[in-house]
Amino acid sequence: MTKIDVISGFLGAGKTTFIKKLLDEALSGEKVVLIENEFGEIGIDAGFLKDAGIQIREMSQGCICCSLVGDFETALKEVIETYSPDRVIIEPSGVGKLSDVMKAVQDASANLSVQLNSAVTIVDANKCRMYMKNFGEFFNNQVQFAGTVVLSRTDVAEHEKVEKDVELIRSLNHQAEIITTPVSELPGKKLLSIMEKHDHMTEELLEEARHAAEEHEHHHEHGEHCGCGHDHDHDHEHHHEHGEHCSCGHDHDHDHEHEHHHEHGEHCSCGCHDHHHHHADEVFTSWGRENVPALTRDKLEQILEELADGHAYGQILRSKGMLKAADGEGWYYFDLVPGEYEIREGEPDYTGKVCVIGSELAEDRLAEAFLG
After folding, report:
1. What predicted TM-score, i.e. pTM, was given to this entire model?
2. Residue pair 23/190 in contact by the 8 Å Cβ criterion
3. Across-strand partners of 61?
4. Which of left, alpha, beta for 118 (phi over 0: left; psi -120 to 50: alpha)?
5. Average pLDDT score over residue span 16-36
6. CATH number of the domain at 2-217, out of 1.10.10.10, 3.90.850.10, 1.10.3720.10, 3.40.50.300?
7. How far apart are CA 73 and CA 184, in angstroms?
8. What CATH number labels 284-371?
9. Non-local CB neighbours of 23 within 8 Å, separated by 6+ positions
């Protein structure tokens, strides 16, 4: 019987870091296959995890709740027949729905010797409230159906914020184990033991996830769309609390953190608010390019400043990439979420790559910025 662990989390929450910790510290004696589904035209994370010796079947053609539900069992069967793994880790798209992935695994278990072992969601402690209010169903679904919720970045978040996060998570999921100790301080084997508690994957939770996924599919089949000028009948709630307003009408959690990377407070990006029954590709879009030319650090910082804090390129939710340094010998690797970004130096890769995810993306401007 092959164990299946689903490690979900909104874009930029820290899924890849969490998975690597498990691989390094808890699963080194097991044969593990990672199935990574990226929402975006260019896969970025795969190279990082391949360095850890993990076989990856990259699925970049769409989010797992949309394109991959139909062929998920076929893909899983191929992985099991090819590698005979002890464990399969599924890292869904950051904008995927956990209930859809859980249902897909349950459906596959009828014909394959697999079992849903755990469902984990990583939540950025500094963005929990803002994402919960502004990204409605996509963020909340991942919290609601998790057996374990891991709050990341609690080492830099204020204690009061973490306490509030726990309350918000409990309002959606009263059974999940919530990890608030910084992940870096916990051994990988401890994390694994918490994930694998048998009372997490209850029949009740699995049935609720199945029902949510089937309802999601039902609404999609009946033509209820949103995000790109389609018709929809639900209300768009604009949440503003304690005077927190901005020009785009979203609720922002304006806490300023002191870290080693650039931050100007938190902004949300997608404009989807609290919708129901949507597929990610109806709300979010992506732009990606390979063979990106070299840039100086100053130029890259200028672009990332605008991506993180403005609307010149559309509503940006996530961006990451790697490109040659025009003012040095190495390469620049960057990660960006609303309101903050980080640039680090790294080894050369086979080509420069950039991926941007958001809504109403100004693709011509992005191409001009990164490609010249």
Report:
1. 0.69
2. no
3. none
4. beta
5. 89
6. 3.40.50.300
7. 34
8. 3.30.1220.10
9. 32, 52, 54
96, two tokens: 């995927």
Q: How far apart are CA 270 and CA 316, in angstroms?
A: 7
Cβ density class 62-88: b for 16+ within 10 Å, e for less? bbbbbbbbeebbebbeebbeeeebebb
Continuous H helices in the chain: 15-25, 45-50, 67-83, 98-108, 128-134, 136-144, 159-172, 188-195, 203-221, 280-283, 297-309, 363-371
Sign of CA dihedral 19, 151, 251, 8: positive
Determine the Cα angle at 264 with ends 152 and 365, to 5°: 105
Q: Domain extents for the chain?
A: 2-217, 284-371
- For residue 221, which amino acid is it? E
- Higher-confidence residue of 240 and 165: namely 165
| 40, amino acid identity | G
Query: What are 275-334's pLDDT values in tens digits?
Result: 444 454 555 688 889 999 999 999 999 999 999 887 889 878 888 899 999 998 899 999
Mean pLDDT of 201-230: 60
What kind and span of H or E run contains 356? strand 353-359
